Amino acid sequence: MSTDADSASAQRAAVRNFREAFKNSPKNIPIHKLQEHAARPRSFKGPIWVSNVTIPAVTGVEGDKLREMLWEVFQQKRGEGEVLDYPTEAVEMHGEWVGLRKGEMWEEDVEGMSEEEKFRRIGVDCESGLTVFYLSGNGWMRNGPPGSHPLLLQLSRHSHSRIFTMQPRLAPQETLPTIILDALIAYLYLLSPPLRSASTFHAPIPPSSIILAGESGGATLHLAILQFLLHFLSVKPSPVMHIFNPEIPLPLTPKTTTPAGLALLSPPLDLLFALPAAHQNAETDWMPPRGPWFSPTFPASPGGIWPSQPPRAEVYVDATALMHPLVQPTLAPCHPDWKGEEGGGERLPPMWIACGGERYADGIKFFVREVVRCGGRVRFEEYTGMVHSFAVAMPRIEQSRECVNRWGLACLQMGTHAGEGKREGWERRAERVEMGELRRREVGFEEMIGEEMGEEEVRRRMRERMEVVRGMVWRGPEKEEEKGEKAKI
């Protein structure tokens, strides 16, 4: 009979083995080859429905207006000296509806169905009436679908909900303003779909029936959508958009656009590795200080993909913008948008946030504490000893199974509360989940991170680190003569 200590020891060994395997994995694979590998078709056998759709491009006057509105949010929150790219024009995007498949059915029968019929079956088998809009991370550089199907099946199972996911454009070909635009368009597509599109099957979905779920970089995109909505909720009169259907106006009000909740795993809220956990957890997490694509020997990708043109010190944005709240939302709750007119966070949807004992942990804890301070309702879970995005990276370990179960349940509960008009039923709670038998210990929000880590101290640390990072521009692999000159020095 295994003891708690035995279980904890086995879990630590599993984490150590994962970290070593990652450390020893090939590093000098060009970015375009990594992207091709992630996008390759993969079959996944199991009780899963997948219905493919095309999200139309938002072009013309409405497309221009939406880009202008997003740029307004970027500009309004922009710091001195930050270099940002204006969002590029929208394009068609691939989307998927995913759900748990119930009953006995041959795979051949499923493959012969139309996409519309598979979508209809998803609605029958996923009885909650909720839609979980899920976005993958992958550093904004690699495709989420189809590699995320095993996780999405489990989220659908535990939330009793249908899942919608999509693929935004990728960095470094595009930077985050454009990637955020793609995620925003996908959210508006759920709220107000085109009615005369052969590949659109859903009716307009009320925001009270939508949960925004994501891991790592996908969590950042959802927090950017939230910031976009919060910004325009403070504008009077409320702007009205006609995104996909000129017959369906979409006013930006809490009832018409604010989701039922957010369910996020390991949001990257210390991209600069500026806070203490970035160093304290360096030996237990898998994330290196800098990606291999900044190495002097890393191979370039053709066509100006990488190094970018002009060259940058970060793959997904100019390094001067690494503190912008839409890029790194750590300090976003300190903005008046989040507090609302009454100062009680009444605009904020409830949130479920989980992380491991990872290098981003202090940024995540700071963010959670500040959301609670401005009146938001958050349930936070820290899984000690686990790596960044552990439930995705290490799906078979006990902590991952526990986390995904609670992730799906949180989606269901937040959606149920919103549907009943009882968001206040989502109680605030922070827990630390210990290794071994996964005992839970409640912690105070003010205890999670030291009081000395206030807003100004966090800003100071991030500014100092940003000054270092912005000088690390990658201009391509070193030529042999450059290596020789360095060797002489």
Number of strands: 12
In helices, the fraction of residues equals 25-40%
Describe the global form: globular
Mean pLDDT comes to 91
Q: What is the structure about, briefly put?
A:
The protein is α/β, with parallel strands linked by helices. The chain has helices spanning 4-23, 31-38, 60-76, 107-111, 115-125, 149-159, 176-191, 217-233, 254-257, 276-280, 361-373, 390-393, 398-419, 455-469, 480-488, and strands spanning 48-55, 93-100, 131-135, 162-166, 210-215, 240-241, 250-251, 261-265, 351-356, 378-383, 429-433, 440-443. It is built from 15 helices and twelve strands.
Description:
By secondary structure, this protein is α/β, with parallel strands linked by helices. It is built from 15 helices and twelve strands. The protein has helices at residues 4-23, 31-38, 60-76, 107-111, 115-125, 149-159, 176-191, 217-233, 254-257, 276-280, 361-373, 390-393, 398-419, 455-469, 480-488; strands at residues 48-55, 93-100, 131-135, 162-166, 210-215, 240-241, 250-251, 261-265, 351-356, 378-383, 429-433, 440-443. Strands 1-2-4-3-5-8-9-10-11-12 form a ten-stranded mixed sheet, sandwiched between helices. It has a two-stranded antiparallel sheet with strand order 6-7. α6 packs across α13 and α7 (176-191) packs across α8 (217-233). The N and C termini lie far apart (61 Å).
Salient structural properties:
single chain, 489 residues, alpha/beta, ten-stranded mixed sheet, two-stranded antiparallel sheet, 12 strands, 36% helix, 13% strand, globular, disordered C terminus
